[in-house]
Amino acid sequence: MDKKKRIVNKEDLLIAGRTFDSSDYDGTSQLEQGLAITHEQVGDDYTEGTVDQLSK
pLDDT (tens digit, 9 = 90+) per residue, 35-54? Predict the structure, then answer.
């Protein structure tokens, strides 16, 4: 069981170290789709700014 757990941890480290790449928009894996969606959400929030700017 320990050996199997170590293998899973190595795979988890590969996933955890993954960052967004523009090719993720065309990706089919759950990881690629999640990174693409998160990247788009962050971009939208960044360009929108804060609520404080709207109330001035």
Answer: 999 999 998 888 877 666 65
